[in-house]
């Protein structure tokens, strides 16, 4: 029986050439798997046909948008996951979903190998291969761009020699990855970190410096899940899509950062994630109202570690699974509405309401009707400060 390889297929030059390249190098049949994670661009049927035209024996395109929103974006939202306190894990979230479908296709079609088009410099090679190792430990991995000398020049020459139907449109000066959660742009003139990004870098967001009227939006959550926009029910996918449009129109969610890659290098990345940033802003604000202080403090630590694990390709790790359970438990009272003002590149909370609120007006007010017993505060302060006071007295006594 002929060997079979399942290839993570994007429809671009590298993975299109990889179909014939892998077949020639290994003698195996190639099954192409492409996923719609809300990236827009080319029609998925066009991509499916291109894989067949390039020599794939089978071409699968899967609509993964709702699965991506419900099972990958939503946990990131509930964790308030921002790598290095800024980046909402755009690419890192889609990779384990694609891996899940690659491994399922490999098992269904009896393939012994899975291939990807990642380079050796990026994070995605780790996310793919560690994920494949977790879900299909018996599968081998091929990485032709990284391991087989399939440079871009060679890929173009191979495509011309074989007459492959690769689009000959003008090559973008940037490397771009996008999905419904956001868009990542790198390389080209951005590699000089003194160069500022120019407007043609952006697609999801409008220039935030352009004068325009502010947009006010109310986002409703039920147990940490966004369930309404301005009172109208939405799925998680619809919430992200609608806020991409509305927050994007106000320039919300632009990020320009030098980040720490998993492979040890620093990389300049430009991101735009209007829906993600608006949703995380609203979700954090609702948690401030509904989550008790010590749980909230510890959850911030959990969220940071969760983001690092996902960025580092460890979506399927035991620690990530355990942290998921903690985050899920923390969301049981995160129900209510947050009003955001979207304007000038910022999403700012201007109103909060929740039946599960821990905010007590009568305790918080400084006006008549205050129910806070200030007489209790003196003893509390003395007891609270006692360990520090004793330590300071000891240090003075010993001349420390």
UniProtKB/TrEMBL annotation:
<keyword id="KW-0436">Ligase</keyword>
<dbReference type="Pfam" id="PF00764">
    <property type="entry name" value="Arginosuc_synth"/>
</dbReference>
<dbReference type="InterPro" id="IPR024074">
    <property type="entry name" value="AS_cat/multimer_dom_body"/>
</dbReference>
<keyword id="KW-0547">Nucleotide-binding</keyword>
<feature type="binding site">
    <location>
        <position position="127"/>
    </location>
    <ligand>
        <name>L-citrulline</name>
    </ligand>
</feature>
<feature type="binding site">
    <location>
        <position position="259"/>
    </location>
    <ligand>
        <name>L-citrulline</name>
    </ligand>
</feature>
<protein>
    <recommendedName>
        <fullName>Argininosuccinate synthase</fullName>
        <ecNumber>6.3.4.5</ecNumber>
    </recommendedName>
</protein>
<dbReference type="InterPro" id="IPR001518">
    <property type="entry name" value="Arginosuc_synth"/>
</dbReference>
<feature type="binding site">
    <location>
        <position position="87"/>
    </location>
    <ligand>
        <name>L-citrulline</name>
    </ligand>
</feature>
<dbReference type="GO" id="GO:0004055">
    <property type="term" value="F:argininosuccinate synthase activity"/>
</dbReference>
<dbReference type="InterPro" id="IPR018223">
    <property type="entry name" value="Arginosuc_synth_CS"/>
</dbReference>
<keyword id="KW-0028">Amino-acid biosynthesis</keyword>
<dbReference type="InterPro" id="IPR023434">
    <property type="entry name" value="Arginosuc_synth_type_1_subfam"/>
</dbReference>
<feature type="domain" description="Arginosuccinate synthase C-terminal">
    <location>
        <begin position="174"/>
        <end position="390"/>
    </location>
</feature>
<keyword id="KW-0055">Arginine biosynthesis</keyword>
<dbReference type="InterPro" id="IPR014729">
    <property type="entry name" value="Rossmann-like_a/b/a_fold"/>
</dbReference>
<dbReference type="Pfam" id="PF20979">
    <property type="entry name" value="Arginosuc_syn_C"/>
</dbReference>
<feature type="domain" description="Arginosuccinate synthase-like N-terminal">
    <location>
        <begin position="4"/>
        <end position="165"/>
    </location>
</feature>
<dbReference type="GO" id="GO:0005737">
    <property type="term" value="C:cytoplasm"/>
</dbReference>
<dbReference type="GO" id="GO:0006526">
    <property type="term" value="P:L-arginine biosynthetic process"/>
</dbReference>
<dbReference type="GO" id="GO:0000050">
    <property type="term" value="P:urea cycle"/>
</dbReference>
<feature type="binding site">
    <location>
        <position position="175"/>
    </location>
    <ligand>
        <name>L-citrulline</name>
    </ligand>
</feature>
<feature type="binding site">
    <location>
        <position position="119"/>
    </location>
    <ligand>
        <name>L-aspartate</name>
    </ligand>
</feature>
<feature type="binding site">
    <location>
        <position position="271"/>
    </location>
    <ligand>
        <name>L-citrulline</name>
    </ligand>
</feature>
<dbReference type="InterPro" id="IPR048268">
    <property type="entry name" value="Arginosuc_syn_C"/>
</dbReference>
<comment type="subunit">
    <text>Homotetramer.</text>
</comment>
<comment type="similarity">
    <text>Belongs to the argininosuccinate synthase family. Type 1 subfamily.</text>
</comment>
<feature type="binding site">
    <location>
        <position position="117"/>
    </location>
    <ligand>
        <name>ATP</name>
    </ligand>
</feature>
<feature type="binding site">
    <location>
        <position position="123"/>
    </location>
    <ligand>
        <name>L-aspartate</name>
    </ligand>
</feature>
<dbReference type="InterPro" id="IPR048267">
    <property type="entry name" value="Arginosuc_syn_N"/>
</dbReference>
<keyword id="KW-0067">ATP-binding</keyword>
<feature type="binding site">
    <location>
        <begin position="8"/>
        <end position="16"/>
    </location>
    <ligand>
        <name>ATP</name>
    </ligand>
</feature>
<dbReference type="GO" id="GO:0005524">
    <property type="term" value="F:ATP binding"/>
</dbReference>
<comment type="pathway">
    <text>Amino-acid biosynthesis; L-arginine biosynthesis; L-arginine from L-ornithine and carbamoyl phosphate: step 2/3.</text>
</comment>
<feature type="binding site">
    <location>
        <position position="124"/>
    </location>
    <ligand>
        <name>L-aspartate</name>
    </ligand>
</feature>
<dbReference type="GO" id="GO:0000053">
    <property type="term" value="P:argininosuccinate metabolic process"/>
</dbReference>
<keyword id="KW-0963">Cytoplasm</keyword>
<feature type="binding site">
    <location>
        <position position="123"/>
    </location>
    <ligand>
        <name>L-citrulline</name>
    </ligand>
</feature>
